[in-house]
Amino acid sequence: MIDLHTHTSCSDGTDSPRELVNKAIVQGLEILGITDHDTTSGWQEATESLRGSLKLVLGSEISCLTSDGISVHMLGLLFDPNHLEMQQVLEETRDGRLPRMRKMIEKMRAEGMDISIEDVHNAMPSGATMGRPHLADALVAKKIVRSRDEAFIDLLHNESRFYVSHAAPTPVEAISLIKRAGGVAVIAHPFASLRGEILSSESFTDLLQAGLDGIEVDHRDQNSDERELLRGIAKDLNLAITGSSDYHGTGKLNSLAENHTHREQWEKLESLANARRVVSA
């Protein structure tokens, strides 16, 4: 099994990189992608934890905003970890998360919710990249909601009155950056209607021109019709087709490798990086 999209406690997952690698080994995965939001900070621990036949695909899920304000996530895989421009953009995007969180909290407090930025920090593992899941965990701790899933369904989805966007590259800029860093670019869950606003089919023209390499088709937040439409777009544009779990650990329904990528699609994708960067024990 090949799962190219997972998260650790270095962003908004609950498993440490070591714990995630151990779970992947126990479940018999062949290839595990670690793609924390806007950071590569989990790469070293994951690599040091690797053993047996498991292989690692290291990357990051880059937060993007279209020109009309739609939130898009771009998976950058197999890029050079020492690429200075990439690391600078990731840092700038992380820095934008704090003011965004403050604005969301202000909106909630204005409606009488007893929540603070300190509560969010208390819900975050040390060194994590701040995100909405940490606000969700803080809301659970304050007994405002019962679970992380309930928080997203009721309060934190993209069309919620509490939602605030943040400074981020456009999808085209992110793809171009990933390619300059020698990696491959896969757009994550682009038709995920369960998350709110989604891209249109026409959006892929600009993404393809920028160098898009693949589309994440099989994802739990995309229904069967959306998956089939994306599969057709990927085939028409000769893009790799991936399936992934978007695993975050405890508190989200996603199970490790619940969706996965077929070997021939992975080989097609991996061949497009400018160097062989898959990590083996």
TrEMBL record:
It holds the Pfam family PHP. SMART domains: POLIIIAc (SM00481). SUPFAM superfamilies: PHP domain-like. Residues 2-66 form the Polymerase/histidinol phosphatase N-terminal domain. GO terms for molecular function: 5'-3' DNA exonuclease activity; 5'-3' RNA exonuclease activity. PANTHER family: EXONUCLEASE, POLYMERASE_HISTIDINOL PHOSPHATASE N-TERMINAL DOMAIN-CONTAINING PROTEIN. This is Metal-dependent phosphoesterase.
